[in-house]
């Protein structure tokens, strides 16, 4: 009898542990922060001082500190929304040094496919890219040293998804006494970024006679430059000017409607700041106020740079 009771207790303990729901970080807000693709030179690759008899390896660490792209729920691979002229998520370009002294180093490398932050990976993707070359014999050029400057510039596609709960009130100015679940505030403030270098910072809502208007404020919160996504692989990084810089493409949805926005895409940022006015029809099926998410999508190219100096000496 004691054995039977013991077996029942063990079974109940096993059942209780086995059936406890797994805690998934579904409540984690990974769409925060103001970074996208972040680069760093790996320590001592190459060292700050080296000799011409050594091969040179310039190793760049690449981290995706933003929330784009998200993994495919079926395959687990990162999904990139690619514009017609894009080549993957982007490219690294190497410049700043004299190719007569350092030869064989590739001038560009593709950025590895790195997933953004998500509920399963709070840090985002990580990889390294290596630029390898050879240094000429300094004796053949009668030089004692050369200070090489290496400039690595990233040009990549990125996307921001901003979500804000808004109040939809078809009759906000009605004088009839009624209870409302929400009221439209003067503005909705979005702080902390949305896991991308370009962010929606504020939304202002206005109810008109036959439509609802949202004025959406956009700002470049990163340390790089915003580029027209359709010119990214044509002009970045060596042909950037006012015709292809500070261009953002805006779309979104609210309450089942796609946003209709003016001015037309792309939206121009001035000193890193811009705004767009988007509208949806006023709901006809409801006369009472309700809350619903407003989702705004921003698509753009982005570019940033890092630099390193290496002193190369003639081998004694």
Supply Rg. Answer: 27 Å
- Label the CATH architecture of the largest domain: Sandwich
CATH homologous superfamily descriptor of the largest domain: Immunoglobulins
Put simply, the count of helices is 2
Record field, number of beta strands:
18
CATH C-level category of the largest domain: Mainly Beta
CATH-derived topology of the largest domain: Immunoglobulin-like
Taken from the alpha-carbon principal axes, the silhouette is elongated
Overall pLDDT, averaged?
87
Distance between the termini: 89 Å
Q: What percent of the residues sit in helical stretches (DSSP H or I)?
A: under 10%
- Mind describing the biggest β-sheet? 9 strands, mixed
SS content category: mainly beta
Overall structural domain count: 2
Provide the β-strand percentage band: 35-45%
Which H/E pattern describes the elements? HEEEEEEEEEEEEHEEEEEE
Low-pLDDT segments, ≥5 res: 8-25, 74-87
What is this entry, summarized?
This protein has 316 residues and is mostly beta strands. The protein is built from two helices and 18 strands. The chain is elongated, with a radius of gyration of 27 Å.
Structure write-up:
The structure is a single chain. This protein has 316 residues and is mainly beta. The chain has two domains: 28-157 and 303-313, Sandwich (Immunoglobulin-like), CATH 2.60.40; 160-300, Sandwich (Immunoglobulin-like), CATH 2.60.40. Helices cover 7% and strands 43% of the residues. It has helices at residues 2-18, 232-235; strands at 37-41, 49-51, 56-64, 90-95, 102-103, 108-110, 126-135, 145-168, 188-189, 198-207, 211-220, 225-227, 247-254, 257-258, 260-262, 267-268, 273-281, 290-313. Strands 2, 4, 6, 8, 12, 13, 14, 16 and 18 form a nine-stranded mixed β-sheet that branches. A five-stranded antiparallel β-sheet has the order 9-10-11-17-15, with no helix packed on it. A four-stranded antiparallel β-sheet has the order 1-3-7-5, with no helix packed on it. Strand 10 and strand 11 (211-220) form a beta hairpin. 31% of the residues are buried.
């Amino acid at each position: 009898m004691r054995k039977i009771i013991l077996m029942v207790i063990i079974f109940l303990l096993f059942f209780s542990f086995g059936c406890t729901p797994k805690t998934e970080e579904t409540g984690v807000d990974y769409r925060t922060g103001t970074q996208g693709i972040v680069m760093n030179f790996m320590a001592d690759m190459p060292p700050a001082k080296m000799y011409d008899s050594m091969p040179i390896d310039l190793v760049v660490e690449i981290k995706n500190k933003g929330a784009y792209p998200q993994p495919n729920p079926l395959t687990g691979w990162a999904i990139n929304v690619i514009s017609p002229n894009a080549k993957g998520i982007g490219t690294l370009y190497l410049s700043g040094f004299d190719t007569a002294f350092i030869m064989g180093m590739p001038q560009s490398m593709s950025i590895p496919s790195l997933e953004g932050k998500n509920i399963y990976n709070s840090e985002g993707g990580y990889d390294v890219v290596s630029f390898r070359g050879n240094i000429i014999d300094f004796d053949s050029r009668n030089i004692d040293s050369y200070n090489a400057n290496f400039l690595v510039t990233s040009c990549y596609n990125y996307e921001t998804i901003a979500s804000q709960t808004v109040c939809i009130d078809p009759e906000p100015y009605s004088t009839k006494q009624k209870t409302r679940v929400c009221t439209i505030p003067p503005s909705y403030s979005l702080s902390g970024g949305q896991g991308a270098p370009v962010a929606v910072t504020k939304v202002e809502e206005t109810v008109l006679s036959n439509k609802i208007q949202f004025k959406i404020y956009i700002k470049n919160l990163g340390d790089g430059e915003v580029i027209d996504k359709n010119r990214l692989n044509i002009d970045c990084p060596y042909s950037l000017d006012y015709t292809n810089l500070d261009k953002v493409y805006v779309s979104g949805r609210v309450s089942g409607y796609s946003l209709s926005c003016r001015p037309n895409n792309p939206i121009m940022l001035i000193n890193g700041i811009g705004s767009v006015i988007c509208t949806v029809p006023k709901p006809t099926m409801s006369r009472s106020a309700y809350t619903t998410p407003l989702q705004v999508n921003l698509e753009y190219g982005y570019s940033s740079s890092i630099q390193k100096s290496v002193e190369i000496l003639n081998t004694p």
